[in-house]
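Exercise 3.2. Students should predict the tertiary structure of the chain below and write it as structure tokens, then compare their answer with the key that follows.

Predict this chain's 3D structure.
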Amino acid sequence: MTVPTGRRERKKAATRQKIADAALRLFLERGYDAVGIRDVAAEADVAVTTLFSHFASKEALVFEQDEDFEQRLTRAVTDRAPHEPLIPALRREIQALVRHCTADSAAPIWRMIDASPALRDYEESMRLRHAESLATAIAADPGLSRTPTASRAIARFVIDAYSLARAAADPKATVDEIFQMIEAAWEVTCPSAHATGRAGS
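Answer key:
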């Protein structure tokens, strides 16, 4: 998560994390469908209204890193070093995210998600939103010179790379393989690729 700076922000972040930790603990102990919002609020020792001020739905409790994930992807575009090619920057970030989500401690969470239609649907909508945010960041960068359509297509490929790698036997090799294809697609979308030879910019 992004580290909050002010006292109020730190307190808010701590409450949010306490709620998320309580929810995950209950979900893993009892099963996702057997736990209600009131159960989570009681476990976290907060009011139901407080819980909903931090999380819009029960599904969101499982994906509490959602906003951080999205920000990390867009920052891979906006905060990369001057003249650093985009695709290697995105590959580096996806590799880091995949390492995090394939740690042994994450396995029970993903089994729970895979077993729940509601959580799978939520994850799918989340991926689409992340892809749109990433596409917006790519299209807004004047140094990349890609159309909105190209930006959206590349963003979808990047998000799919994360999803496919998470479920693969060799996540790192999967990311590397998919990003070779993404790199090729990126080069094709460069309007000056054939004229200047600077397709990877």
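Discussion points: Residues 194-201 have pLDDT under 50 and may be disordered. The chain has eleven helices and no strands.
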